Amino acid sequence: SAQFFGAQDRKTLSRVVGNTILLTLASGLVMMVLGYFLAPWLVSLVNPPEEVAGGAVVYLQIIFLGMLGCAAYNILAGVLRGMGDSLMPLVSLVLASLINIVLDIVFVRNFRMGVAGVAWATIIAQAVSGLLCLVRLCRMREVVDVNRRTLRPDRQLLGKLCALELPAGITQAIFSLSAIIVQGLTNAMGTAVIAANVAVMRVDGFAMMPNFTFGTAATTYVGQNIGAQKPERIRRGARDLLMLALGVAGVLVACILLFGHGLIGMFTNTAEVLAIGQRGLRWLALGYLAFAVSQVLQGVMRGAGDTLIPMWISIITTVALRLPLAYLMAYLSRTPEWPNGQPDALFASLLITWVLGMVMSVAAFRLGWWRRKLPEGLRQQL
Q1: What pLDDT digit, counting tens, does each position of 211-262 carry?
Q2: Closest-CA residue to 72 (of 27, 105, 106)
Q3: Which residues contact 160 (CB under 8 A, 6 or more apart)?
Q4: Fewer C-beta within 10 Å: the chain N or C terminus?
């Protein structure tokens, strides 16, 4: 959508947006059905403690029932950003977060719905965020048409959209499956490690937000300038985004190293969990600088229309490297105190993966394979 918006091609942009909505609806419904019935099997993969296994299945099934709202927000927010509106996705996300918090309290404390209440609060909030983005998109009549005509399926266009978006979907699926498998290793290390890992991942989720945002910004920026036939701005913009991303990541790294104990302390007051969590954050801290580089450069590639290279980098680092590395490091670090391996293996393997992903992203960017998706004239100017 960013390229057609930059080219001011209203007709094609409208058809792309319409077919994107149809594709989101279809894929969301498929994931909803498959996920609901596969939830027990997915939970069994992580070998959770028996006392939480039942609740985990219920939670996951409800989350899958709300998959359509989650898919709608993720896809439509990306479309809006590609058309230059980054405010509405942010407003929708903030509002959804507030709704989630309020409903968590109401469902759990007042209605005593337990884990199911948390899950219902999440999917309702996601549905609201997706609906807000859809309403905003339908009201952008000055740049795009969303009506019955543009919502008609176009087989050729749907094929192109699938070819473009499928690698990104596969990448996310690989990340999720990898996380499930590593969670099995985490669970084997004991409840203290499980609790510490949850705390670390909450801090990690916050620390990762700027990196993902800069990656999205790079995709939008490059796509719009390609559509507008302004290739001279791409390298300069990519360099500036990279410097900005590294600067923000550097500040976050400093905060994590200085205040890691306090950050983990927001989620637990158990001494053992605090020690494991703080150590985990120290392992991951410098990795955020590497991840910032990867996200910006891969965002540039996606903006140029090449989603395959980022997908293969993710597959190689997440599956071929992270999984065997985590299990190998855990095996080699076994002690009488840690019979299934030390928790450092979880965090060190993730840091190594991020660094290797950065090296691969820089190499792919410099080799210029991503330019093959561009028209000949633009390719020669980059």
Answers
A1: 988 998 898 888 888 877 888 888 888 899 999 999 999 999 999 999 999 9
A2: 27
A3: none
A4: C
89 CB neighbour count, 10 Å cutoff: 22
- Tens of pLDDT, residue by residue over 271-300, are 999 999 999 999 999 999 999 999 999 999
Q: How many CB atoms lie within 10 A of CB 311?
A: 20
What one-character-per-residue DSSP string does 140-169 give? -TTT---STTTTS--HHHHHHHHHHHHHHH
Question: Rounded to an integer, what distance in angstroms lies between the CA atom of residue 132 and that of residue 343?
Answer: 41
Q: What is the pLDDT of residue 6?
A: 61
Distance, CA of 144 to CA of 290 (rounded, Å) = 37
Return d(Cα 299, Cα 313) in angstroms, integer.
13
Torsion-angle region of 84 (φ positive above 0: left; ψ -120 to 50: alpha; else: beta): left
Q: What count of other Cβ atoms lies within 10 Å of the Cβ of residue 380? A: 10
Distance from CA of residue 257 to its chain's centroid?
Answer: 24
The CA distance from 251 to 245, in Å, is 10
The per-residue pLDDT for range 59-116, each reduced to its tens digit, is 999 999 999 999 999 889 989 988 878 889 989 988 998 998 899 889 988 898 988 9
207 close to 260: Cβ distance less than 8 angstroms: no
Using the 8-state DSSP alphabet, how is residue 337 labeled?
Answer: S
Question: What are the angstrom distances between the C-alpha of 126 and each of 66, 74, 139, 207, 282?
Answer: 8, 10, 20, 21, 32
Amino acid at 203: V
pLDDT over 90 (residue 304): no
Give the C-alpha separation, 85 to 75, whole Å. Answer: 14
Residues 6+ apart with CB under 8 A from 83: 1, 2, 5, 13, 140, 143, 144
Question: Do 378 and 231 meet the contact criterion of CB atoms below 8 Å apart?
Answer: yes
Alpha-helix runs per DSSP H in the chain = 2-6, 10-45, 50-65, 67-82, 87-105, 114-138, 155-188, 191-227, 232-265, 271-285, 287-303, 308-315, 323-332, 344-367, 376-381
Instruction: State how far the alpha carbon of 158 is from the alpha carbons of 167, 235, 330, in Å.
Output: 15, 30, 44
Q: Single out the residue of 123, 134, 142 nearest to residue 21, CA to CA.
A: 134
Contact 317, 356 (CB under 8 A): yes
